[in-house]
């Protein structure tokens, strides 16, 4: 039996992406167009601009993904597209394109939950058995999930206010470090003293596995405001490092509690854009080692938004027999 070949489409935020993935885990193509330059002047993603950019670029990217994979649409077994959650204009562009292709080529359509794309990514890169603990940390999400099977997710914890990527982005804005914030804060923090500022450590020691970052963000703002203006480079670096260290401590505390809720030895997997942060990765890896569980972190290009993860989630569902109707609705909100 030849492995399934799936075309994946992602357009739920500010990346336009298409990919072709095979059921034996081969990524035949994975093209991602970042809209960073379109949104940079606004210091954040503007939904209207994002949707228009997806309209302009998606078809060409799909053409490229097929060409690079060396396959024709006729050879594809199914078309998987993000059907939510996300910025609804972008989701509509991707899902409608997928429907048109499915209809025109007579192929099955599979609507994928974007979060599920992140959640199943580790199985695209390695033989990771269920169940595993997923720490999903991105610009829009901050969750601890027990991944028990395809379509079987149990939420152990979530943020009660901001997502962690959002906290990085807002901190970067406060410190004038530029956009996107995550990588800018990480860069500045490398030259900073993480012990200089005593910031609050939200949720640490509390029961449960939930997160909270809005108090930390406020503390960063107040601390920055109390320093001589304009901020000196060293002050920025020290504040960035102090912020990042607190985020790391919160993450470790919450994740340690979630590990205790999983069957012993279940792998710890980290995914989402914030998983690109080397400091956080190192601390989570140390936690996994200390608690005796395997640690899996997909390569960074598969951690940030991409279509290979959507194609892969499509493959997992395709194998399980799922097919979606052409009147499938896009969803701005869609909890796993
Ligand atoms: O998964 P992603 O590409 O998009 C979604 O939000 O779904 O994640 C983007 C987020 C942004 O908030 C960005 O600032 C953050 O991930 N990020 C980082 C780093 N690289 C990206 N945060 C901290 N450190 C990084 N190195
Ligand atoms: Zn994402």
TrEMBL record:
UniProt cofactor note: Binds 1 Fe(2+) ion per subunit.
Compartment list: Cytoplasm
Protein EC: 2.3.1.234
Domain named Gcp-like: residues: 27-312
Entry keyword annotation includes tRNA processing: yes
Catalytic activity: L-threonylcarbamoyladenylate + adenosine(37) in tRNA = N(6)-L-threonylcarbamoyladenosine(37) in tRNA + AMP + H(+)
UniProt binding sites for substrate: 136-140, 169, 182, 186, 277
Cofactor names: Fe(2+)
GO molecular function terms noted in the UniProt entry: iron ion binding; tRNA N(6)-L-threonylcarbamoyladenine synthase activity
Protein's GO biological process: tRNA threonylcarbamoyladenosine modification
InterPro entries in alphabetical order: ATPase_NBD (IPR043129), Gcp-like_dom (IPR000905), KAE1/TsaD (IPR017861), TsaD (IPR022450)
Residues at which Fe cation binds: 114, 118, 305
Cellular-component GO terms for this entry: cytoplasm
Keywords assigned by UniProt, alphabetized: Acyltransferase, Cytoplasm, Iron, Metal-binding, Transferase, tRNA processing
Domain of life, source organism: Bacteria
Protein family: Belongs to the KAE1 / TsaD family.
Functional description taken from the UniProt entry: Required for the formation of a threonylcarbamoyl group on adenosine at position 37 (t(6)A37) in tRNAs that read codons beginning with adenine. Is involved in the transfer of the threonylcarbamoyl moiety of threonylcarbamoyl-AMP (TC-AMP) to the N6 group of A37, together with TsaE and TsaB. TsaD likely plays a direct catalytic role in this reaction.
Protein name in UniProt: tRNA N6-adenosine threonylcarbamoyltransferase
Organism of this sequence: Zavarzinia compransoris
Gene name tied to this protein: tsaD
